[in-house]
Write a structure and sequence with these properties.
The structure holds two protein chains of two kinds.
Chain A (H helix, E strand, L loop, with lengths): L4 E3 L2 E4 L5 E6 L6 E7 L6 E7 L2 E5 L7 E4 L6 E5 L8 E8 L7 E2 L3 E5 L1
Parallel strand pairs in A: 2-11
Antiparallel strand pairs in A: 1-3, 3-8, 4-5, 4-9, 5-6, 7-8, 9-10, 9-11
Chain B lengths: L8 E5 L4 E6 L7 E8 L6 E6 L4 E2 L4 E4 L5 E6 L8 E9 L14 E6 L1
Parallel strand pairs in B: 1-9
Antiparallel strand pairs in B: 2-7, 3-4, 3-8, 5-6, 6-7, 8-9
Classes of the chains: A mainly beta, B mainly beta.
Chain lengths: 113, 113
């Protein structure tokens, strides 16, 4: 068990650019979650996958955001036409079936200049 | 999900017990009480969870009142590495809502030498 891995750890981009983040969950965890955390706040739920199916999306996830989990393993989160308000820590978590705790990665910190 | 209320900050001397309270008066019968913590620059880390009974693991103890309206997380011998933000969260059992955690702002625990 190597834990949830996120790449990159840090990303600086200019407003208007597209960015993509990757999350590798713990193997055999079929649930995968994306959260966003801004400075001084707790993480906020963005979206959730069960295997390759995206089952729920928060209203925080605007049309500029898209998440995929094509083979039910790793996931990507893409933000198009970034805005300064997108600056945040993007956290990925995974869990197995049932009432199991979420295992979080250490996040990707995005700074939009 | 239940709304939880926690004190914004607490201090504790190293080696002493840290008792972190949480009010969750609106918790429903099918919601677990989960505790996570977040050390600076890391993702949230699961600590413990419970439904009705008190629970203990290698990290902490969780005391839930009989009416389930509040709980206390106990770190029996706090160390400097326990300095973190502690989140108390209601999490429904099973279903698609499981894992959509509402973090709130948590309690900043500072452990002093």
């Amino acid at each position: 068990d190597t834990g949830v891995s996120q790449d990159p750890r840090h990303k600086i981009t200019k407003r208007g650019q597209n960015v993509t983040f990757r999350c590798d969950p713990i193997s055999e965890h079929n649930r995968l979650y994306w959260y966003r955390q801004t400075l001084g706040q707790g993480p906020e739920f963005l979206t959730y996958f069960q295997n390759e199916a995206q089952l729920e999306k928060s209203r925080l996830l605007s049309d500029r955001f898209s998440a995929e989990r094509p083979k039910g393993s790793f996931s990507t989160l893409e933000i198009q036409r970034t805005e300064q308000g997108d600056s945040a820590m993007y956290l990925c978590a995974s869990s197995p079936e049932g009432n199991s705790p979420l295992h979080f990665g250490n996040g990707t910190r995005l700074t939009v200049t | 999900d239940a709304k939880t209320t926690q004190p914004p900050s607490m201090d504790c001397a190293e080696g002493r017990a840290a008792n972190l309270p949480c009010n969750h008066s609106t918790i429903s019968g099918n919601e677990y009480v989960y505790w996570y913590r977040q050390i600076h620059s890391q993702g949230p880390q699961y600590i413990i969870h419970g439904l009705k009974n008190n629970e203990t693991n290698e990290m902490a103890s969780l005391i839930i009142t009989e009416d389930r309206k509040s709980s206390t997380l106990i770190l029996p011998h706090a160390t400097l590495r326990d300095t973190a933000v502690y989140y108390c969260i209601g999490n429904p059992r099973g279903g698609t809502s499981y894992g959509k955690l509402t973090f709130g702002q948590g309690t900043i625990l500072t452990v002093h030498p």
